[in-house]
Design brief:
single chain; alpha/beta; TIM Barrel; two-stranded antiparallel sheet; 11 helices; 37% helix; 17% strand
């Protein structure tokens, strides 16, 4: 069985800081990250979806964590086709527009290439230190199963090389009927890592909890089962605390998944107060047992 490492999708959320999970001595960003890294070997950086990172920030992450610590980084919204705030773009690349948000087609081809180049370049300190585990490409609900979108997965793989991209879908077409086998076969054929999800079902962006390893790295993200999944309040959307019974049921499934991968990353994304950290610790203990 391959190695399983567990972490959360945030260490700086405001409600986490208010929850008391951090000791009073962890009163600076540097001390909080160092404390987190003593609890878990893995973290996912989600802030990079909203604004591209600075190389200086990535260098600080390297300095503040142990040698064997791993960061997964979420791709900037423009790189996954989501609407992107104009104010989040690099200043010299912002289009002249009255719009608050733009899509890739709203910027010049040269500006789009620059976004890719600068985003990846800012992560060089993590790459050089061997601390960048994967780049998470979470696609929008309108990213359906079709040839052009499959081609884009391959384009992302080429652009990111040698960094590992991992792919999370938010449209059920990828797993409707025979499409499930088609999707997994395509990913395996090209050694593209699939992100398995546990999330509320019955919504437009719901994807079933299909567990499959399609490359040497497997990733599982736990989004919770909030009954307010459609809320625009991110804490209502992800404010779900898994019961120990739920996690106990997941442990053998994760071990089975890990039999087919060299390493498995398990991320708790139910980021409200200390829910993710508490559940990650529980799951870590269950897997160790």
């Amino acid at each position: 069985m391959g190695e399983i490492i567990v972490g959360t999708a945030s260490w700086t959320d405001r409600t986490l800081l208010d929850s008391g999970w951090y000791p009073p001595t962890a009163d600076t960003p540097e001390k909080r990250l160092a404390y987190y890294a003593r609890q878990f070997p893995l973290v996912e950086v989600d802030a990079t979806y909203y604004s591209p990172p600075a190389e200086r920030t990535a260098r600080l992450w390297v300095q503040r964590t142990p040698q064997d610590f791993t960061f997964n980084v979420k791709a900037f919204s423009m790189l996954t086709g989501h609407p992107t705030r104009v104010s989040a773009l690099y200043k010299d690349l912002r289009p002249v527009t009255d719009k608050r948000t733009v899509y890739p087609g709203d910027v010049t081809a040269q500006a789009y290439e620059e976004v890719w180049s600068r985003f990846l370049g800012a992560l060089d300190p993590l790459v050089e230190a061997g601390k960048l585990g994967a780049l998470l490409f979470q696609f929008p609900p309108w990213f359906t199963i079709r040839r052009s979108n499959k081609d884009y997965l391959l384009e992302v793989q080429r652009r990111c090389d040698p960094v590992r991209p991992v792919f999370e879908f938010r449209h059920s077409s990828w797993f409707d009927g025979d499409n499930a086998e088609e999707t997994l076969t395509f990913l395996r054929q090209h050694r593209l890592a699939y992100v398995c999800v546990d999330m509320p079902q019955g919504y437009r962006n719901s994807v079933p909890p299909v567990l499959a390893a399609t490359a040497d790295l497997a990733v599982v993200r736990f989004h919770g089962h909030s009954d307010k999944w459609t809320s625009t309040d991110i804490h209502e959307k992800f404010g779900y605390r898994y019961s120990e019974r739920e996690l106990r049921d997941w442990a053998p499934r994760l071990r089975e998944l890990a039999r087919n991968a060299e390493q498995t990353h398990v991320l708790l994304n139910n980021c409200y107060r200390d829910y993710a950290q508490t559940n990650a610790r529980q799951l870590q203990d269950l897997l160790a047992a």
